[in-house]
Amino acid sequence: MKISEIIFWILTVISIGVAGWYLFGNSPTFEQTILVLMLTVVFGISMKVAVIGEKVNSIERKFNMMAKDFKEHLGGKK
Length: 78
Fold this sequence. Notes:
Layout: H1 3-23, H2 30-77
């Protein structure tokens, strides 16, 4: 597991705990509960964006290599 996945799961457990604490009373305010939930969601989304960015960079590199191969192939035939 990556460190980001571990942090995400820790935040998820904390979010569930705070939400349960809020539901059963004697707890943090509603805004604090929402803040913890939003922190977990934003961190999860940022993890997904990072993964998508890595995939896009990989595809871009492969496309550039393919374009170079096509240029070499077409340049050799002339």
